Amino acid sequence: MIGVSKNVTYLIGSPLSVRDYNRYGVGEWIHRGWNVRVFDLTKIINKNFWDHVNGNNPTQDFSFLTVFETAEDAINEIKKIQTNSVFIDLLGEKIFERKCSALAKQKGKTIKLNLGCIPSQPHNIFEKIQRGLWHPEVLFQFLVRKLFGYKRLHPDYIVVGGLNSEQQIKPFRSKLIKAHNLDFDFILNDANSKDLSNNHILFIDEDACYHSDYINLGITPCATPKNYFPTMNKGLSKIGAAFNSEVIVAAHPSSDYKKRPNSFKFPVIKGHTYNLIKDAKLIVAHGSTSLQLAVLLRKPILLVTTNELEKSFSAGTYAAFRSALKKPLINFDNLAIDQDLVSCSYVYNEIYNAYIENYIKQKNTPMKTVWEIVVDELVNDLKHELGSI
Predict the structure, then answer these.
(1) Measured between alpha carbons, how far is residue 305 from residues 203, 285, 309 in Å?
(2) Contact, 269 vs 248, CB < 8 A?
(3) Which residues of 98-110 are buried (b: 16+ CB within 10 A; e: fewer)?
(4) Residue 256 in contact with residue 284, Cβ under 8 Å?
């Protein structure tokens, strides 16, 4: 780069929410004096998903946001962007998305995130075929890339968190920015992280029956409302009785239970997951990424499942969480009367420490927010390239 424009463009494949605005660090770039634009390609990539999440009715009017109607318009607008700009590439691997990512790389520096690493298990050939059948859209795109010989795109930067997310990036043809999982920012921004009231049991909801990703990926939900909610309500009631505490549900950000005929019988609260975890005496979950907050806050955890979930595409992920946290299987369809739930939830610091290192934050990485780390790294590199910025 022979100069720097101080323009940063986000390429996104799902509608921008206030939550995404915060998590993706838009405000940090603006605070540092950069010109920010967000290009939303959702309508082009997956119109059904756009309609499902009601993308035409945003929760916030973002003046820097452009929603594209056609692929031609999006490509032409990316081509107009000033050379030596910066792109935050949040797109996937579909053919049109790859085309946009490749064009962005020609125009300037590209940054991708690999921060959402979670426990996983290796799959044999039968399991891989089965997963492909569960995810036909993903399988189709994979086959197209293989048949037409598409080369892997290597961004200029990849932001990584725990050790596992770094180990996934091989060979190292991109510069790694070592940060942490986005949820760790809650800890950094919380001045009273140790002020814990421990007054309820919290179930971390995954929107298992209605999640918008089912539409986005073209897959069958991993649970049905008629089976899932009666089983979960019964199981959570037993846990509440065992611990003599109120049960609260932390609703998934994509959920909308007010419009659903089947739901939880407990109070459902949306948009306050961190504080709900912070104030809980016990966390119950299947395998949510928000479990990392429970680990960081050293909360007792129970990992639960149902017969239906164990037959779904999510079963392997849930088993991997149990393996990483050394937790026993608690199946609400077969919950033993005499099962010792207290010992099942016990906090083992060495296990939690290993989980943090592997999946959240490595030792000796900066104690700054993800986007402070990213902007600092980029600006320092540009200073070395240009002498000044």
Answers:
(1) 12, 8, 6
(2) yes
(3) bebbebbbebbbb
(4) no
Residue 197 half-sphere exposure toward CB, CA atoms < 13 A: 9
Structure tokens at 55: 């993308």
pLDDT of 137:
55
Q: What is the DSSP letter of 153?
A: P
pTM, 2 dp: 0.87
Q: Find where tokens 């509608």 sit.
A: 15
CA-nearest of 313, 69, 332 to 211 is 313
State the residue for tokens 């939900």.
Answer: 221
On whether both 292 and 315 belong to a single domain, the answer is yes
pLDDT of 171-213, one tens digit each?
778 999 999 999 999 999 998 756 566 789 999 999 999 888 8
Per-residue DSSP letter, 308: H
Between CA 40 and CA 211, with CA 133 as vertex, the angle to 5 degrees is 45
Residue 172 burial by Cβ neighbours in a 10 Å radius (0-12, 13-18, 19+)? exposed
175 and 307 belong to one structural domain: no
How is residue 266 written in tokens?
A: 């407990």
Alpha carbon separation from 42 to 91, 137, 254 (Å, rounded): 10, 15, 16
> 49: number of CA atoms within 13 Å, CB side?
21
**What SS3 string covers 81-121?**
CCCCEEEEECCCCCHHHHHHHHHHHHHEEEEEEECCCCCCC
**CATH assignment at residue 330:** 3.40.50
Q: Is 12 found in the same domain as 102?
A: yes
The answer on 319 and 226 residing in a single domain is yes
Separation between Cα atoms, residue 66 and residue 54, nearest integer Å: 16
